[in-house]
Each structure stands twice: as structure tokens, then as C-alpha cells.
Amino acid sequence: MKIVPLIPDNAPFSSEQRAWLNGFLAGVLNRGAPAPGSASMEEKQPLLIAYGSQSGNAESLAKRLAREASGRGFAARAAGLDSLQPADLIKDKNVLLITSTWGEGEMPDNAISFWDSLNQNGSSPKLDSVQYSVLALGDMNYGDTFCLAGKKLDSRLAELGAKRIVDRVDCDVEFDDLAKKWSSAAFTILSGSSAATPTAKAEETGYSKKKPFPAPLLSNNNLNTAGSSKDTRHIAFSLKGSGLTYEVGDALGVFVQNCPDVVDSIIAAHSFDPEAAVSLPDGGTASLREALIKHYEVRQLLGKAPEADTSLTSFIEDLRKLQPRLYSIASSLKAHAEEVHLCVAAVRYSTDGVAHKGVASTFLADRLSLGETTGLYFHTANHFRLPTDLSKPVIMIGPGTGIAPFRAFIEEREATAASGKNWLFFGDQKRATDFLYHDQITEWLKKGTLTRLDTAFSRDQEEKIYVQTRMLQASSELWQWLEEGAHFYVCGDAKRMAKDVDAALHEIIQTAGSKTADEATAYVAQMKKDKRYARDVY
To answer: Which of 67, 107, 375, 480 has an alpha carbon 20 to 30 Å from 151's alpha carbon atom?
Structure first.
């Protein structure tokens, strides 16, 4: 590879000095040539690690594996599927694809346009020259739709002629070990027998999912008033001494515990000894009772009759590891230094006479006392960010606990003196009892921090009114905001609300924007591509 001279021949250096400086500066400026005597100048094997990500897991993993691949000697890059076309796979030749699945087996938002391009009859290119493998992220609790997005992409790439170098791996929520085996196998095959030894991994410092910060609980306040059928809590943790920071839009990982009463009933139903020593998912042993409270999921055992003659060993082997829960962050560090806040709905219900409790929500609402600690870590959500241009308008759709990230957004907009307009759609059951953060929202309206507020309380009248109802009623102004470059955000229920809001958005673009259905679809697709339409749904 030729080095473009940066130091002229008449500079006051010897020829050897000029050669060394030219090489060094070319490397610094990414001009394609390393300094003489440093890395090999031969061309590196290209590798694209593409990701389809809804909550950020696939994106974070892809970027981490791209760094590892670079350390192994590949010319590796990570890229979201929203920035790619099928033809780009041909250019890179070697492709590792990581994708999550959300909703009922659907593609992540940033993978929809790529998936549509793959399925355009007659226009999708043949991928015979592409080598690929797919890592699918999912949750086995979703049954038949488990990892469905990854399965579809894997199958379609093969149909288009791409060569599968490693069989697809489908991962449950605990994916680190499987991802490591999958990537190692792919790296080895792609680099051949001359695989470079990976660079030594720097020792992880600070707090993370593997080393969570023990955060004290600062406050636990009920956001509903007397007479509400709901129990929604404002939860605040201290980050003092952790050195941790986060951005609005990120999520908080919370390590939780099962209800001791539930665990005791399960142990009694199986006639097990609560003090019997059992193996833990990450190694080591503990008493059965401690293991079920702190280390294993027990949700699937509720209401089930114990199987006869089940041994303790087989009982433990059938259990999944207890996972931390992710919650949308409801605060801005600029407004609450060294704190992080959540908005959590406590889940309690009965089916067939069996009482059920949400593991994480009731742990936070009922069982974690003020001052006690639990492990926390931050989960980056680059897809759910405020616009960097502070003059851009923002439209936020957040019914129920979907208000969480938008409380953080508005606090951030206020703290940064953002000049852009802010419009919030909030909904719940009854205004009198379920208007979450009423006082703070009202104060924002008075000060002008919040430009417009539209509320939808479904049970305050005979006809059910939802946030999408209010959107349609404000079609003309909402369309005007979109044309002004507004960023559109949705947070909350994925199965119904997010789909209904999306349908309302398309209808508004058609009616107020005088567009056909196809034109509205293209408009929304462009919003997503421009990072102006983001969803934090669950």
C-alpha cells in the first residue's frame, strides 16, 4: 500500500526521518498506511458485524465483537441493519449478523427496511459470494416466536445463495457464553489456519452487569392516589461513590430476588429440605432456599402440581438462572446528581385461585427496604436518544409507566435549555388517581418547558379514550410538527399500544399530509432511517 507523502522533500529532515514521519502521520490520519516497523502492511480480511437491535443488546454485542475481531487481525466494523442494503453484504464478503426479536416474533425497528429489501422479488441481489452466520437473541418465554427474527434472516440469506459458515445459534436471555463460542468458531473459520492470536483483553474496571454496583434505595413512593386499582412506584437509588453515569434514554439493570413466601411454598410442595446444598448457575453451592430466592427463576413453577418422584438434582437442572430486569430510566443526571430513578408498576394478580406477583416489581415495591442495596448496572440504548440539535421539536407518547423515559427527557431538555418544542401524550385509567407525576408535569406546562400536553384517561367516560385517540384528534398540528423535523418517541406496551400508535401515525401522515398509504409507509421508513422515530417497548 502506497504511503502518500506528508513531509515534503525539502523539509529539514534526513530521508530516513522523512520516511518514518510520513508513515507515522499516515497512520495517525487513517490514510491507510501504518508507521514503518509497526503492523503488517498486507491487506486485512474484511468482516462486517451487522446488528438488528431493539433494546441495545445486539448493538452492544456487535460492537464488542468488532473490537475483538480487529484484535484478531480482521478489518472489522459493526453496523446497524438500518444503514445497510443487501448489496453491502457483497462488498464486505464476510458477514456476522446479530439480531434480537421483539413483540410477537417481529424484526427490530432498525432491521425492518433491510428485511424488506431482502424480500423484494427480483430486485434482491444474489449473495453467492457472501459467507455468513447468524446469532439470534431472544427469550424462551415467548414460545414459538423465540428468536424468530434471527431464524427468518438466516433462512433468507441462505435462499439468496450466501454460504453459512457456522450454524445459527439461538440464545436465551443469558447469551454471553453462547455468543463467545459462536464468534470464536466464526473467527477461526474466516481467518483459516493462520488465525491471529487475539490481543489480551484488558481487565474490566468499574461496575457492569458482571460486577453490579450495590446501590442503596433512597425512596419508594406510590404515584397513584387512594381509590386507584394500580400501584405504581417512583423508585430512586443512590449512585454515590460508584463513578457510574448514564444518558437519558438508557435502561437500568436491576438484580432482583424472588419472594421468600413463594419459594417456601414451592419447597414445601416438593417436600424438599430447604437447607439441602444445591449447585448454583455460575458455580458454587448454596442452600436450596437461598438458591431459589437469589439465583433461579421460579415463575414457571407457580400453580403447577409437583411431579412425582422428582429428585432435587433434576429439579434444579430444569431451572433457569434468575436474570436482572431492565427498566427505562426516569431521571436525568443533570437534574438528580448521583441518583437514578425508575417508574415501576407493581404486578399482582390471581389465576385459578393462585396468587401471582411480578418478581422484580414486587421486589422493588414491597421487599427492598429503604437503605438496603441491590445490584445495578446501566444498559446503553443508543437507539433512544434525544436529538443532538436542541432546536428540534420532540413528540413523546408514553401512557402508564411509559412516562418514565419522557420524565427524563423533559428534565434533560430543561437542564440544557433546549429551545425545541416538547409535546407529551400521557394516558392511564383515571385522572383523579392515575395521573403519574402530575405536579411535575403541571409545573413544566406553567413554565413552558412542556409546550403541549394531551392526556387520555380511558375510564373517565363511557367511551374508552387512548393516546392514539388524542393523536388522531390533533392530526393537523402533529403533522406540522413532523414536517418541522420533530423526533417521535414511543414507550410502553409492545403488543397493543405501540402498534396502535404506529397505525395512528400512518393515518395522520396520510390524512393530514395528503399522502397515499405507500407514501405514508415510505415517510415513516425515512423517519426511522433519520433516527426520528424511536421506540422503547416491552
So the answer is: 67
* Distance separating alpha carbons of residues 16 and 398, to the nearest angstrom: 64
Of 104-118, 298-312, 337-351, the poorest mean pLDDT is in 298-312
Question: Which of 194, 222, 238 is at the close of a domain?
Answer: 194
**pLDDT tens track for 166-215:** 999 999 888 988 999 999 999 999 988 444 444 444 445 689 999 999 99
Give pLDDT tens digits for 394-410.
Answer: 999 999 999 999 999 99
Separation between Cα atoms, residue 60 and residue 329, nearest integer Å? 18
- With beta carbons less than 8 A apart as the criterion, state whether 379 and 370 touch: no
User: At 386, which amino acid appears?
Assistant: L
pTM of the model: 0.83
Into how many domains does the chain fold? 4
Dihedral (CA of 125, 130, 132, 137) sign: negative
**3-class SS string, 444-511:** HHHHCCCCEEEEEECCCCCCCCCHHHHHHHCHHHHHHHHHCCCEEEEEECCCCHHHHHHHHHHHHHHH
Distances (CA, A) of 294 to 52, 64, 286: 32, 29, 10
Most confident of 139-148, 229-238, 311-320: 229-238
- The strand pairing partners of 428, in sequence order, are 457
Main-chain dihedrals φ then ψ at residue 443, nearest 5 degrees: -65, -40
Inside any domain, residue 270: yes
Domain co-membership, 92 together with 213: no
Cα separation of 466 and 486, whole Å?
Answer: 22
How many angstroms separate the CA atoms of 331 and 409, rounded?
8
Cα(355)–Cα(378) distance, integer angstroms: 32
Instruction: Enter the DSSP assignment of 129.
Output: T
- Examine residue 31 and state whether it is found in any structural domain, yes or no: no
* Domain around 510: 394-537
* Average pLDDT of every residue of the chain: 89
The mean per-residue pLDDT over the stretch 440-445 comes to: 98
